[in-house]
Design brief:
This protein has 380 residues and is α/β, with parallel strands linked by helices. It has 14 helices and eleven strands. The chain has three domains: 5-119, HprK N-terminal domain-like (Udp-n-acetylmuramoylalanyl-d-glutamate--2,6- Diaminopimelate Ligase, Chain: A, domain 1, 3-Layer(aba) Sandwich), CATH 3.40.1390; 133-278, 2-Layer Sandwich (Alpha-Beta Plaits); 288-377, no CATH class. 48% of the residues lie in helices and 14% in strands. The strands form two sheets. Strands 6, 7, 8, 9, 10 and 11 form a six-stranded mixed beta sheet that branches. Strands 1-5-4-3-2 form a five-stranded mixed beta sheet. α12 (327-334) crosses α13 (338-352). Residues 313-364 form the PucR C-terminal helix-turn-helix domain.
């Protein structure tokens, strides 16, 4: 997770900072924090290019411009040229920057931040660098989670990744994978104190939470529910997948996969939560995709192509499975008359299983559609 100016403004010490310019440029990357003292006085002309680096956030008291406000214009132009991410000033020399200076900064798309009070430079730098270091750890953690979910691990590979994570895992674990109809943008550092032995991480656009305990009878589900309440989400837009209770040392990768695939079916079924243990035939489809995705894709291509060539047949087939054959609900979903739904189902049966009984037709179509939806929600 790369640190941005927006992240900087979320630090405890910067909570009272005011954004004066560059409101639309706060997603700029911020790699370090530097201090501007006298660099814009005449005698430092030749050194400015060496004193500030690209993607840095610059702190200043503006003491150098105490007797010459024109130096403020030069400062803004030069910092923008050096591609500095933002400038934050302490209002001791200038309580408010001249409007013309702010306009110039806006023109150069340079965010200018105003200190909220008497914050010390050293404390700001410490908190910013601490956040950056944690962000580097977060990037590594996300990379590790990606490997564990997307690859089949040997025992040696799994143990190596667990060691590198350096997390205080206990013997048993429970994992959840959460995806949302809206973008998840939680600052996970705020929630780490509530998770004593486990981890919080993003996996692509999803959130992964792992909770561990030495007691196999620990109330994982209840504790996870309490933790999730801290996020204050709109549950109608959340799809959560939960793993089995597993042994951390041997089954971390498997539990993460279970949570991930369960979240896919929670989304497919438009449910808030779906536990891997509650999936039945879906588990067979998951294993098929994990073991031989190429075969699964070829099978779906052969089965679905004929439905895609006729308008509305594929969407009707999907609706048929998701609404468990309820014609009335399907008609509402498809915005058509129930007889139209029946006609389309007849066409689908002629294509998929013309000689099968209704039971076999539903069974065959169910497997095809669920496999199709699984592949759609699980891109490579």
């Amino acid at each position: 997770m790369v640190m941005t100016v927006k992240n900087f403004l979320e630090l405890p010490i910067t909570k009272d900072f005011k954004v004066e310019t560059g409101h639309h440029d706060l997603e700029r990357t911020m790699k370090n924090v530097e201090i501007l003292d006298f660099e814009f006085m005449q005698e430092f002309n030749n050194l400015r290019d060496q004193m500030f680096t690209e993607n840095s956030l610059v702190l200043t008291s503006l003491l150098f411009a105490k007797d010459d406000a024109n130096l403020l214009f030069e400062m803004v132009s030069k910092l923008a040229e050096l591609k500095v991410s933002a400038l934050a000033y302490k209002p001791v020399i200038y309580e408010q920057l001249p409007e013309e200076v702010l306009q110039l900064a806006e023109k150069h798309r340079l965010p200018i931040l105003k200190f909220g009070g008497d914050e010390f430079f050293e404390d700001i730098i410490f908190q910013a660098m601490d956040y950056r270091n944690k962000s580097s750890q977060t990037d590594f953690l996300e990379s590790s989670i990606t490997q564990l979910i997307e690859n089949e691990m040997t025992e040696e590979q799994l143990q190596n990744i667990i060691r590198q994570m350096s997390k205080p895992f206990e013997k048993y674990m429970y994992a959840v994978c959460i995806q949302s109809d809206e973008k998840l943008e939680e600052n996970l550092f705020h929630f780490e104190p509530f998770l004593r032995t486990g981890l919080l991480s993003y996996y692509k656009d999803k959130l992964i939470i792992v909770m561990t305990n030495n007691d196999v009878n620990y109330p994982f589900h209840e504790k996870m529910h309490s933790l999730l309440q801290l996020f204050n989400w709109d549950l109608s837009k959340i799809h959560l997948g939960g793993s089995s209770i597993c042994e951390t040392a041997d089954e971390l990768a498997e539990a993460l996969k279970e949570a991930y695939y369960s979240s896919i079916f929670a989304k497919v079924y438009s449910e808030v939560a779906c536990l891997y243990a509650d999936l039945q035939s879906e588990q067979l489809l998951i294993q098929l995709v994990r073991q031989d995705r190429a075969f699964a894709e070829k099978f779906i291509e052969q089965s679905i192509t004929s439905l895609e060539t006729t308008e509305h047949l594929l969407e009707t087939a999907i609706s048929f499975i998701l609404y468990e054959g309820n014609i009335k609900e399907m008609a509402n979903d498809q915005f058509c008359h129930p007889n139209t739904v029946r006609y389309r189902l007849g066409k689908i049966k002629q294509i998929i299983a013309p000689n099968a009984t209704d039971f076999k037709f539903y069974s065959s179509l169910s497997q095809v559609i669920l496999l199709y939806l699984l592949l759609q929600h699980h891109p490579l």
